Amino acid sequence: MKLIRSPFIYAISYIILMLPTYVLPYFGSNSSVANSISSSAGVGFLPQWWIHVWFLASLVLISWIRSKWIDKGSLPAFSIAASLFDILPVLNFIPLVPTIFHIVAIIIGANSKSKDLDKTELESLSKRSIQYGLVISTVCIIGIAIFSFSSNKIKREDSEPSQEHTHAVKQTLVKDIHEKKVKTIDNTTQTDYQNPFSEGQRWQGDYTCAQGNTPLSIKISKVTEELKEKKYTVNAVFSFGDETHTSGSYNIVGEYDGRTGKISFKPLDWIDQPSGYVAVGLNGSVYKNNLLKGKIQHSSCTSFKVAL
Q: According to the model, what pLDDT value does residue 6 have?
């Protein structure tokens, strides 16, 4: 902590810690949309947000240490104000304000004369600074760990077939065998599942993402059949929203497996993209009565369900 007694060391240290806060926003660190989406999905704030917070908190800490050497208790207030205008929604849309507060903190801290601290004061300052630094680092590490753990958990859940779907497939297979719908082709047996998709269909329902439950329509534009593999390529338009919800649409392409009843859609190009929205993929299964439901492939989303 003796190093911060030097105005030059204080100014250089402050600038070094400040620079990443101007780079991280390009990676979405202070994006209110991205962080609200990840929070509503149950995974917490983005890792880059926690890193951004660590640098801002470190600036407050270093200005607090400097305030003890120059006997100006108001110095950390400028770093705190800069941090609030940098990271909080709405406030971070106001340009230059964080920079102004940072510059004031640097100028006041570097142009003020340092005083001498006795041994007791220096030991107390060093102890408290280390404690505050450990608290800041621990909180940020825990935040990043929660995000990583929650994201991996969601991915594992999405990759595991649901018990409901497994049970439905087994029931269909038993029924088909009972009705003698099993065909023998080249000494191999395959169950004859019917393709539920055809051009012009409109599957309607809803899905859930950060913005809440939203109306959903999947209009089938083209179906290409591969008889040998019992697989079908399905082109469609993913449309969402209505009069009371933000609306948009984009093209998707999926592969339907006639042997399992599963389909996986991937997003293509946007037709109508509202601000702040990203195209997402879908993994689902077709059930009886032409019901299609499954998971939305994005950390901020959960499930979808559509039917003819």
A: 92
